[in-house]
Amino acid sequence: MRRAKLLLIGLAMLLILPTSGCGFKDIDKRFFVVAMGIDQGSTPSNYRVTLRLAIPTSQMESGETKTELESMEAPSIAEAVRHLKSLVDKELDFGHCRVILFGKSLIEEGVENPINWLSRRRDIQQVAFLGLAEPNAFQVLKLQPQSERYPGNALFLSFGSEGTESSYILTEYLFDWVRRQTETGKDGFLPIIRKDIDRNSYRVDRVAFTDKKKLRLCLTPAETQLFNISARRYDKSVIAIPFKGARIVLALSQVETHVSISHEDIPTVTLHLHASGFLEESPPNFLNGDIPKIENQLQTEFNGELQDLLYKIRNSEVDPYGFGLHYLAKYFGGSKEWKKWKEAYPEITFRVDSRIVIDKAGLVQ
Amino acid sequence: MSRYFYYHVIYVGLINVMLFVPWTLVQHRFDGAVSAMAIAVVLGTFVAYATTSLYLRFPQKSLPDILNSLLPRWLALTINLLASTLWILAGILVIYSYSATIQQFFNPDMNPYLFLLLMTAAGVWGASRCTRSVQFAQEIMLLISAPLIIMILFKAVFNPWLDWDAIRVTAGYIRTPPSFVSLCAATFVFAGYNTLAVFNRLLPQGTQIRYRWIIPLFCTFFLLVSFFVPIGFHGTVGVAQYLYIWSVTADSMIMEYGFVYRVLYIFLLLYTALSLMFAMNTWHTAMEFLKACRPKYKPDPDEYPTPKINWLINIGFAALTFAYAIWTNEQRNQLVNQFWLIARTFSDITSVVLLSFLVWKTTRRRRSQIPSDAAAPES
Amino acid sequence: MIEEIRNEFKNATDLFTNVLDNGFWAVEIAYFPSLCDEKIKDGVLVPLSYRFDPDEFRRMLNSNPKYEHADDPKEWANLILKGYVLLKIEGKHFSFKSDRTPVTQIDAPTVESTLQGPQTAFTEDLNINMFLLRLRYNVPSLTVEPFDKGTLSRTSLFVVYDHRLVNAKILKALYKQLDKVKLDLLQSSGQMVKQLTEKNHRVFPTILQTERPDRVADMLSKGKIAVMLNGSRFVLLLPVRLYDFMHAMDDEYEAFWMVRLLILVRYIAVALTITLPALYIAIVSYNPEIFRVQIAFTIDGSRAGVPYPSFIEVFIMLFMIEALIEASIRLPRIVGSTATTVGGLILGQAAQQAGLVSSIMIIVTSVVAISNFVIPNTTFSQSVRLMKYLFIIIAMIYGISGVAVLFFALIVYLCGLRSFGEPYLALFTNETKELPK
Fold first, then answer.
1. Which of A74, A330, B84, B225 could disulfide-pair with A79, CB 3.0 to 4.6 Å?
2. Residues in chain A within 8 Å Cβ distance of C297
């Protein structure tokens, strides 16, 4: 009886074991895609997919990493990826693809199909970083920075907050972008990534705004920082103004924002911002009772700049701040309210009410 | 001992993700889900209080024991069979949708039936134990996994990428009239009390279930989180396009300094434990209902070693799971899920009515017995 | 008498039989010199020879507790084998207890050593063991019941418990199980464990073996039952729970928080030793995306030269480590350290450099081995050693989800086990007594 049982179990094992073949693929038979670029193809209906593949080595040293770049053009992303598989010797694995770049020309045309592919694939992370590559994704991915310790990490580190934390870099995840593509009253933004002039590192210091279909506006680096402070409450940034011939630079340590919208025919959006920080650069002897004055000047300057930015964004008919959604949330509005907001948006007025506090003067007087 | 009761409450509250409860609610988010949830909080709490109090009137007796002793045999048999169908289906649905999820995210190239085999085998293994062992195993698994799951839920709630505006907009739709399916889906979160149907056997005489406010508190929290957090992450419009809503939501979070970078994998592994626990409990309950259909049945919550009949019944359940997997597809599965959620709501309310009737019957019988007993010595 | 005994022991040339004639009496005597000790000189030979006085000798026969009547010829063979001297004096048969007890030194514990706890261990002598136990747990309610088991070895054993605390149901179950014992030679406590568990092909032990008197005393005070075996250093304790196997006696003696930390470390070690090789296979072959990018690339880089699939790599390394552990148990201590150095350091290093295994795998193997030694109980540690192969097989087929499911199945299995009717794994156990029977 017992022997029969054992025999049965053994037989069952024998039946199961051969099926283990499917899905079983050793790590050294896989090619990890560390970054993916999607560009407009040579004809408007084509896509050009560029993959940056990691070639792992046992020694990890800066500048020693090897990557391979493969590119393919096809009418759809899925076809391009399938075709790319024939160019490489190992199975492509998107599990570690943390960066996805769209070419600028593609964003100008609209990215509906690529987004569809990205959210359908189970192995594409929802937390992959998105970026807009200028002039195109292929050119940006071709770059191999010297500082890379393992394949692709320069890209991961510059977008994420583990490595550098710069107020010019905006982080955008795939899930957030997809949400903004469909959300009522909230539009998407993408950090713009370029090659640095010395062709040795990436340069991420601008942001692009899109509506539900295509690219609408690109900001300058200074405006990008302002957007980062006011929309994403990014507190590792600076506010700088000229003061008595010198320049005062306030490094922020805390930013709080609050938006209120009036319920009128043409609503007024008031952005309350409370920021505090310490002076990194200031004229000497500023302790002599100048603090309120400096604070005041910072506030007026900042209010003006931000207001200009808000109007600029409004005039290009995008809403990356999500004022529309906030309006609906505030007045629990339905589709009627939304219609009203949409009509009123081009006319809307903005007010910025900022309160900037100097906590410390740095280490010197 | 009442802590065992709360384990059931908590894991049933957490498992709603696998029974498409958030999906169902999200589909109706603009036409009645929010108001249905508000009603469900009241209704669910009421039914939970009522059911637990009623079961405590029958100490150490499971529902089949109560039915067998107080109802005519044909009626008890019918109810037992119906109840066991409902319980079996619950286990099948969770096992099916979980193995579909995990196959999607972990082993996309694998034969889905192979994975179903693993899940059903584990379910059979767990459910065929005796009631007491099931309870012990459940306690350990829950204490291992629940803190981490609740940590993920809190991480989601306090995530800076969570869009509170979207949540507020959706919450504004509380003014729409409630939808029926959403109501049934939302009350499921409170349905942990149902497991008393068998596990009441293990509550010793005179147990009081104290701190019953835990039920509304925790379950409301689970309900709100499992509905609103996906909306906060994927927007009021975007959320509707996802099928495995919570898997995608978990994937929207990262642990920058964690050992595992993507929360998704931790979430899936933890839900392995929860789904298996749910399958173990439901199949075990279904098995006890079926066993109680035998005429010479004697309840024993601590039978050791495992009798052969347990194995046979559970292997039957596993076979049903395979049959279901062959028959179903995504649309059918959602349909069956919704049907199940509705049927379950009805059965819960029916069981409250039935139990109150039985309590009334026994008290009347006892009352009529006492005078006759008192009269006996005199005659 | 001598003829009858000679008939029974036909080929036993070491049996000594003689007729001692001191001029007054002719006394027949039979015994095994190897089983008897010097007491025979003072108890029999001296009073019978040059100090002989018939009255005094008769008085001695009646009053000395070592002399007993042995009138049943059927018992003779048995008595002689137990180390008694058989005498026939004036037509009556007597037995004289003169069994040789080897002088045993009380030893230090070898498999369950502690840092600052008591440094005594049980010996292979039942009486000394009883003395060691009474030294620590000496109450009037301590009950000792003797048994004889083994048709050939006739090993004596004591069932010891505190009758105020013991659970009668468990005691009854133990007696029932003891009745079922069918063994020719009972030589070690391990055999007894196999006989006492209901299914002897269990994976996890449900009876604890210990060589520490303080542990036995501690368990007796908790109402458990001890079974002591003659000729074995180890005492059986039952019923036990899983925690008892993870419990070192040091835990009773060290500082509170330190002990909690150590216990946690032990459980983590068990989890690691069971799952780590399986996780390695799952990560390498199924889901490299689970852990951080760096880990994936590190593994990928170190596996670059390895020619065969991950599970073969794991099997090679685990085989090596198992062989090493086996070898170091059997080898004499002096050679043992050489073997571990050669095996662990040189072979591991060389295997990695030759590209047979990845360097990550070397780390995995050593973590598995070290974690396994953290478990205080040897039997349990061996069960855990076995478990990891099951996990490896499931990881080969299903990857990481298989590991999670099997972990669930393992917990269910442990919760389903019973040690003499008591649950084997259950949390907050002191409350389970309230459960309805």
1. A74
2. 32, 54, 56, 60, 150-151
Identify whether the C-beta of residue C105 lies closer than 8 Å to the C-beta of residue C79.
no
Domain boundaries, position A40: 27-218
Residue A8 lies in a domain: no
Question: Of A189, A218, A247, which residue is a domain's last?
Answer: A218
CA-CA distance, C353 to C105, in Å (whole number)?
50
The CA-based dihedral angle spanning residues C217, C220, C226, C230, taken in that order and rounded to the nearest 10 degrees? 30
Mean pLDDT rounded to a whole number for chain A: 84
Asked if B169 lies within 8 A of A23 by C-beta distance, the reply is no
Judge if A333 and A255 occupy the same domain: yes
Q: Is the dihedral of CA B96, B101, B104, B110 positive or negative?
A: negative
Could you read off the pLDDT of A122-143 as tens digits, one per residue?
788 888 999 998 888 888 888 8
Report yes or no: B168 at the A interface, CB cutoff 8 Å.
yes
Cβ contact, residue pair B165, A325, below 8 Å: yes
- What is residue A331's predicted lDDT score, i.e. its pLDDT? 86
Measure in Å the smallest separation between the Cα of B276 and chain C Cα atoms.
Answer: 8
pLDDT at C430: 52
Note whether A211 and A228 are same-domain residues: no
pLDDT tens digit string along C211-242? 999 999 999 988 899 999 888 889 999 888 88
Under an 8 A CB cutoff, do B169 and A325 touch?
yes
φ, ψ of residue A73 to 5 degrees: the values are -115, 135
Residue C400 contacts B, CB cutoff 8 Å: yes
CB pairs under 8 A between B and C: 106
Interface check for A30 against chain C (CB to CB < 8 A): the answer is yes
A33 and A162 in a single domain? The answer is yes
A33 and A182 in a single domain? The answer is yes
- Cα–Cα distance measured from residue B76 to residue A132, given in angstroms and rounded to the nearest whole number: 67
pLDDT of residue A364: 64
* Angle (nearest 5°) at CA A66 between A61 and A68: 160
Domains of chain B: 2-375 (1.20.1740)
Task: State the pLDDT at residue B285.
Answer: 92
Tens digit of pLDDT for each residue in B218-253?
Answer: 999 999 999 999 999 998 888 888 888 898 999 898
Residue A59 lies in a domain: yes
Q: Tell me, yes or no, whether A359 lies in a domain.
A: yes
